Amino acid sequence: MQFTHAIVRTPAPSLSQGITSANLGQVNFEKALQQHANYVLALEHLGLTVTVLPSEEAFPDSTFVEDVALIFGELAIVTNPGAASRNGETISIRPALLKHFANLLHIHPPGTLDGGDVMWTGDRVYVGLSSRTNRVGAEQLGKHLQNAGLEWAVVEMAEMLHLKTGVNYLDQGNLLVAGEFIEAPIWRAFHQIQVSPDEAYAANCVCINGSVLVPAGFPQTASAIENIGYRVVIVDTSEFRKLDGGLSCLSLRF
Ligand code: CIR
Fold first, then answer.
1. Mind listing the domains of the chain with CATH numbers?
2. pLDDT digits (tens, 9 = 90+) for 126-158
3. Which of 132, 192, 222, 248 has its CA 20 to 30 A from that of 214?
4. Is residue 249 in contact with ligand 1, taking CB distance under 6 Å?
């Protein structure tokens, strides 16, 4: 998969009121803005054209733009996020997507689905059933994928917030796995890089055209990725981690 574009959304001052289970302290908004700007720069250095959408004060979690849309080649789908406070985030993503895609498909209630629960390996789309993504939402997505000729599979989950909190596809068969996904039979066919419990946050990395964005502060994972031949780009996301947000959540890549 080669990427040429990304969409991100500037964090809003309300960011500190976002949903969290992390217990890592208060968000420093100025620092979050700086980290977000650095994230955009990292994407640009990897050759992507980045659309930066304006912040949305009414939606504290709206900087986690990955959850509100899915993109598979020419196919763009607006999700129906599972957290009530995030539901309205879908409204303003539509015009941004319509600048790049002629048609948009949707996930409709009672189906719920967060983009963080969806992982595409190029061969197949994996959809995690989480507290945010229900079976109805997954099946609606499955129909859209089938109509587009894409294979898909459901992943049962027990502990993680989102599927990609604990499993992320790089490329060429390489998969980062942490926590409940280590040794899970569904990932048997992949070359797995196991992320240790003390570095579990770093299971959420983003592979862009052969380079991998890795969060700052997780040296074992960064080395493991480097050792299998990737160029590693370190990006500090400490303020987003306080809100359970990882690297992938901060952008839509296509
Ligand atoms: C939330 O709980 O929805 C946000 N605070 C974090 C979303 C992270 N998104 C993702 O993992 N895809």
1. 5-253 (3.75.10.10)
2. 999 999 999 999 999 999 999 999 999 999 999
3. 132
4. yes
